Amino acid sequence: MNNNKVAVIAKKEFFDSIKSKTFLTIFGIFLLLMLVSSVMGINNYNKQLDQYQKSQVENQNPDKNSVFTDFPEPKLTAVVFQEMVTNIGVIGAILAIILGYNAVSGEKERGNLKLILSYPLYREDVVNGKFFGKIGILILTLAITSILSIACALVMGVNLTGSDLIAIALFMVISTLYLITFLEISIFFSTVSKSGTSSILYSFMFWILSTMIITSFSGVVADAMVPTDDTAFYGGKISSTNSVSIVVSDNGETNLSEDGGESTFEKYQKKWKIQNTIESLISPTQNYEQVASAILGNDFVNSLTESDSSQNEIDMFETISGKMSNIITMLVWAIISLVGTYVVFMRQDIR
Fold it and tell me: pTM value?
């Protein structure tokens, strides 16, 4: 691989993407959504923080007329950035698809690919150059998003700690890997397609399948494997032979159970686990959302306590380690797409 030639192709791809009106439109919508999410998240965080502070004061001076004052301390990253997870999962994936759908098919339609390959270039140089150039766009996009979000927080009077900045940085790294996954999938379909129209159609079909259809499919499979009766939650009768009883354990945990069988709560736990497993195996978006939410603190918001920075780093390391399977599963799609792109492009007859 000639690094200089790859750099030239990457630079061209980078600036060509920036000049694209379609990309700029999606990019503008993406940044606007990120900005709105930041402002709404910060306002929500300030409200939750006020509630928490009031509850602390009332707990120190209890009032007999007080109904409920025990509010958990909000975690800044979990409240402010959680909405961004959804936006990146949807709009970010669309942005990556738009970047990659005509990477190869567009060159075929314009007749430029044959001209490019007439130069002393290896085919892998072309693929690598296009790949790195478009990755640069994704990194720039998320870097601008991070700067805007942090700037909004500072302007609105929110103090960011070192652990918050670490969480934001890791969140953006995971987001970059997620967008690269859909970029690679889009470039793969661009390689195997004869036109940009077919490429973008296949890319969006994969996106819809992996984000929407798989959710319904996994739900149907889970229902078939672990049947449950929702009427148990509304006080209805399950059948003429089975009845529902409420069981309170010694530790105060309440479970709905069918006489002679496992509790309805346990059945729902099994069903949720099956559904989540199926979605995680197929959907890059599902894996991304789980990892990103854990990094931002949604998995352990109420368990975090004030501690030194080294302890926060240990907690974050343990979080990443616990979600490593999700990260690997998400990246499998990127690796498969990259290998497929190389194999197909190397064997294609370019006319």
Answer: 0.79
